[in-house]
Write a structure and sequence with these properties.
about 300 residues; alpha+beta; Urate Oxidase; eight-stranded antiparallel beta sheet; 6 helices; 10 strands; about 25% helix; binds uric acid; EC 1.7.3.3; Uricase; oxidoreductase; urate oxidase activity
């Protein structure tokens, strides 16, 4: 015998660019460039077990609502606001749907020139948010960033680790530390209910990550993870938990001795794979249980 397990469905990667015309400083346009995902769940067993689509709001309709809502909300809207509105729409308008998950990745654009309508795509990071709207459990918001590549050319050591018969790694008192930061911060339920200045929170979170990375002398990437997580909790009182994923972008000093050249921390091979992957969570002492927030 078999049975249906957990399931959800929706539209992935709905690409949407909203131009808030003249809404910026000196009448400049403001751009929100998004990759939106919707995922609905609830009383949907029939669709899998009998083929009845009576409760299946087409993913095509979900995609259409994404574009329509961007127009309806208008203006320079934070991705979190959009996620809460969109999720609430599906749960309140479709009786079988009890939970909606909305993800928004936001790509930044930097103004170019003075006319207010020219922009260059900002490649430094992607802003992220995942909103869950659940008919019973309420609304959760997890925001953050990904693809933020950072490097310290010194101020990092790695030594004192156990050595077994497979250990060849040389201890180092001075190495390059580089990573691509994925950070996600979970907002406190009461903050979500009261309303958050989402854009200000994002700016504060990004600054906390960058400033901590630059200011922290480390003996491991694990130590950097905890430092960044703590700094985010300090900077964002509305946040109760941070989850971080830090790939170790290894840089190997190239042996140039065969060519009669010394190499005193100058020429490195930028490793691609494999890479170390350091992951962890940092929580406020009073963080409530996450419930569905990370689903
Ligand atoms: O910061 C590090 N943490 C590790 O766990 C590890 N392991 C390794 O080989 N190099 C490193 N660097």
């Amino acid at each position: 015998m078999v049975q249906l397990g957990g399931n959800r469905y929706g539209k992935a990667e709905v690409r949407l660019v909203h131009v808030a015309r003249g809404a910026g400083a000196s009448g400049a346009d403001l751009i929100r460039d998004w990759n939106v995902g919707t995922s609905l769940s609830g009383d949907l067993a029939d669709s899998h077990l009998t083929g009845s689509n009576a409760k299946v709001l087409p993913t095509d309709s979900q995609k259409n609502k994404v574009y329509a809502l961007a127009r309806e909300l208008g203006g320079d809207v934070a991705p979190e606001v959009f996620g809460v509105e969109l999720g609430s729409f599906f749960v309140s308008s479709q009786e079988p749907i009890t939970r909606a998950r909305v993800s928004v990745d936001e790509y930044g654009w930097t103004p170019v020139g003075a006319a207010g309508y020219s922009f260059a795509r900002a490649g430094d990071l992607v802003r992220t948010t995942v909103v869950h709207v659940d008919a019973a459990a309420g609304t959760t918001v997890v925001s953050g960033l990904k693809d933020l590549v950072v490097m310290n050319t010194t101020a990092s050591e790695f030594w004192g680790y156990p050595k077994d018969r497979y250990t060849t790694l040389a201890e180092t008192r001075d190495r390059i530390l580089a990573t691509s930061v994925t950070a996600a911060w979970r907002f406190r339920p009461e903050a979500v209910a009261a309303g958050v200045d989402w854009d200000a929170a994002f700016r504060a979170g990004k600054s906390a990550v960058l400033e901590t990375f630059a200011a922290t002398y480390t003996y491991s990437l694990q130590q950097m993870l905890y430092a960044i997580g703590s700094a985010l909790l300090d900077a964002l009182p509305a946040v109760c938990e941070v989850r971080l994923s830090l790939p170790n972008k290894h840089h190997y000093l190239v042996d140039l001795a065969p060519f009669g050249l010394a190499n005193d921390r100058e020429v490195y091979l930028a490793g691609d794979r494999p890479y170390g992957l350091i992951e962890g969570a940092v929580l406020a002492d009073d963080a409530p249980e996450p419930g569905i927030a990370w689903d």
